[in-house]
Design goal:
Blueprint lengths: L14 E3 L1 E2 L4 H13 L5 E4 L2 H4 L23 H7 L9 E5 L4 H14 L8 E4 L4 H7 L6 H18 L3 E2 L1 E4 L1 H5 L4 H22 L7 H5 L2 E7 L3 H21 L13 E5 L11 H12 L10 E3 L12 H17 L13 H23 L3 H6 L2 H19 L32 H16 L2 H16 L5 H9 L4 H12 L18 H19 L6 E5 L8 H12 L3 E4 L6 H10 L4 E6 L4 H14 L7 E5 L3 H10 L3 E3 L6 H15 L4
Parallel strand pairs: 1-10, 2-3, 3-4, 4-5, 5-6, 7-8, 8-9, 9-10, 11-12, 11-13, 13-14, 14-15
Helix pairs in contact: 1-3, 4-18, 6-8, 8-10, 8-13, 10-11, 10-13, 15-21, 17-18, 17-19, 20-25, 22-23, 23-24
Keywords: Cobalamin, Cobalt, Isomerase, Metal-binding
Subunit structure: Heterodimer of an alpha and a beta chain.
Family: Belongs to the methylmalonyl-CoA mutase family.
């Protein structure tokens, strides 16, 4: 073949990462080193939920959550252990951290200082996008205004001190998981970008003629679903609109600074528990959506593992996903050619359609006063809940096919999940106890006066207008813990409860699924009449720190549509709070949603609380990513039903909920 159409020099591969971290800093460090030895070219750190939400391991709110979905980092000692033996001057490190992003960056910088790594060489990313936490993932702490101040301070500090660091990674990934269409994903993420740039510009911490330096350090983190042609067009539309916004709104004249820079994790929540071997081809197709188009190619890619719908992946599973990237980059000829889609009228039409729709949606958000106002009014959350409800309806009706779930369900047993096989990583329960003892020992050996003085400075700076990064660095060096740093800012700013978005949704209409819902509604009404009540009442609870509320919200919406009166108070509740609400609201059923792996701690605590409150008869059901052995343990403890991702048909779940209420009350 002629060399005329090939690039003179093949493109360099993107940064290859796997999202990793669990149990302890030492165990995660060993995992990082193994992955780097296998050819991974960047680190992507997963933090556990207590770290993400600003709690120490010995806090009541951290019970059952330590080390489960990521690594616990409570102080400088943990950060040293996490990056032990890794040259931070040469590393490219992504940290999925938002509300305490300033704190984790300060820990990272301090470890780099101790290594004598020049700050100007530090390369990597702090996600630091709090807006999407209010909408989807739930690891927010403070209200939007103060949270945006923290983001602004990090950006201003890094531009001056760590110029190769990406201080914010505007994240549309979880927006797609929460239901966003491509148009909504692009529009809502760009609205966040505008809010961030406006805040930095208006803070006065960056000179007006230096705004281009801020723009070039902003990156995006996106989701890529299995509709890979549409996803590729979405990324081209993203780049087109970002170039327009930064040129026209902020006057950035350097095209290189305006370049849309993004990393990607392909769609983890699109993976299935049923026939999990199908997840391999899903991951490959999703990777193609963000690599095929040279002019819209990801700068960094991290792929989930085939078994993430089942539990925590093992190192071997992560290696499989890394090898997918390496085969595409090094064995195929993808990187040898210019953009494959330039000049395609089909692609151009699809890109224009997404871009035009996103402009209109972005205009709506800006007319409301911007993304913060759209969060506080509940507009964005309601839009996402409605979009996800529509996606669920298409799946239930069979309009959207999910192979192995709602079509082609006949299957041979998978050797990947054969009975008795250890097909997920298990977190040792002793991890939490060790972390608790570790943070107590850390506090005992530090200079208490220095820690107190550093926290006093942080509180004083938070009450004023100073950039909080220097006070945070002082806290790190003085031995302050994650929970103490966040606690001081909680005192200054308070905590926030985001809108739930449950005003959205609606009945299914004249469809097969709608007919099935009507049958369930009739059973709900009949059961209420049998119990002498006006309506059946259901409490949907999210115990612990797990903020992935999409499933709980869809259950709540469908239960409401089925005729239940639904009590849903949002995320991050203690078992005691759930029990109190169940008793006070006199509900007929409690539904708990746990996706973080803490079900064996959180659910028994609720059951015991109900017994102590005199309501041992109140039925409890549980949904989440729950291995079969754990599900049996929960049933033996008294849970009436356990639902996992394979239970996708919401009307069937609603029917089971009615049956549970009838069984609990001795009704035929």
């Amino acid at each position: 073949m002629s060399d005329a159409i090939r690039l003179e020099q093949p493109d360099r591969p993107w940064v290859m990462r796997t999202y990793a971290g669990h149990s302890s800093a030492a165990a995660s460090n060993a995992l990082f080193r193994r992955n780097l030895a296998k050819g991974q070219t960047g680190l992507s750190v997963a933090f556990d939920l207590p770290t993400q939400t600003g709690y120490d391991p010995d806090d009541e709110m951290a019970r059952g959550e330590v080390g489960r979905v990521g690594v616990p980092v409570a102080h400088l000692g943990d950060a040293r252990a996490l990056f032990d033996g890794i040259d931070l001057a040469a590393a490219n490190t992504s940290m999925t951290i938002n509300a305490p992003a300033m704190w984790l960056l300060a820990l990272y910088v301090t470890v780099a200082d101790e290594q004598a790594a020049p700050r100007e060489k530090l390369a990597g990313t702090t996600q630091n996008d709090i807006i999407k936490e209010y909408l989807s993932r739930g690891t927010y702490i403070f209200p939007p205004g103060p949270s945006l101040r923290l983001t602004t301070d990090v950006i201003a500090w890094t531009v001056a001190n760590t110029p190769k660091w990406n201080p914010v990674n505007i994240c549309s990934y979880h927006l797609q998981e929460a239901g966003a269409t491509p148009v909504q994903e692009v529009a809502f993420a760009l609205a966040t970008g505008i809010a961030v740039l406006d805040a930095v510009r208006d803070s006065g911490q960056v000179e007006p003629d230096q705004i281009g330096r801020v723009v070039e350090r902003i990156s995006f983190f996106v989701n890529a679903g299995v509709r890979f042609v549409e996803e590729m067009a979405k990324m081209r539309a993203f780049g087109r609109l970002w170039d327009e916004i930064t040129r026209e709104r902020y006057g950035v004249t350097d095209a290189k600074q305006r370049r849309f820079r993004y990393g990607v994790q392909v769609n983890s929540l699109g993976l299935t528990e049923a026939q999990p071997e199908n997840n391999i081809q899903r991951i490959v197709l999703e990777m193609l959506g963000v690599t095929l188009s040279r002019n819209a190619r990801a700068r960094a890619v991290q792929l989930p593992a085939w078994n993430e719908a089942l539990g925590l992946p093992r190192p071997w599973d992560q290696q499989w996903s890394l090898r997918m990237q390496q085969v595409l980059a090094f064995e195929s000829d993808l990187l040898q050619y210019p953009d494959l889609f330039d000049g395609s009228h089909v692609v151009e039409a699809l890109v224009s359609e997404i871009a035009d729709g996103a402009r209109a949606e972005l205009s709506t958000v800006l007319d409301m006063g911007g993304v913060v106002a759209a969060v506080e009014t509940g507009y964005l959350k309601s839009a996402l809940v409605a979009s996800l409800a529509e996606r669920r309806r298409r799946m239930e009706s069979g309009t959207d096919v999910v192979v192995g779930v709602n079509k082609f369900t006949e299957t041979e047993p998978s050797p990947l999940t054969a009975s008795g096989a250890n097909h997920i990583e298990q977190v040792d329960p002793a991890v939490e106890a060790a972390a608790i003892e570790g943070v107590k020992a850390w506090r005992a050996q530090r200079d208490e006066a220095a820690a107190a003085a550093a926290l006093d400075r942080l509180r004083a700076d938070a009450a004023g207008t100073a950039n909080l990064m220097e006070a945070t660095l002082e806290c790190v060096r003085a031995g302050v813990t994650t929970g103490e740093w966040a606690g001081a800012l909680r005192e200054a700013y308070g905590e926030y409860r985001a809108p739930t978005g449950l005003s959205s949704g609606g009945a299914l209409g004249e469809t097969a699924a709608g007919s099935a819902l009507a049958e369930v509604r009739s059973r709900v009404q009949a059961t209420a009449a049998d119990l002498g009540a006006a309506r059946l009442r259901m409490l949907v609870g999210k115990p612990g720190l797990d903020g992935h509320s999409n499933g709980a919200e869809q259950i709540a919406v469908r239960a409401r549509d089925a005729g239940f009166e639904v009590v849903y108070q949002g995320i991050r509740l203690t078992p005691a709070q759930i029990v109190s609400a169940a008793v006070a609201e006199d509900v007929d059923l409690v539904g708990l949603s746990v996706l973080s792996g803490s079900h064996l701690d959180a659910v028994p605590a609720v059951l015991e609380g109900l017994r102590q409150a005199g309501r041992p008869d109140l039925p409890v059901v549980v949904g989440g990513i729950i291995p079969s052995d754990d599900a049996e343990t929960l049933r033996k403890a008294g849970v009436a039903r356990v639902f996992t991702p394979k239970d996708f048909a919401l009307n069937d779940i609603m029917g089971e909920l009615v049956t549970v209420v009838r069984e609990a009350n001795g009704l035929a």
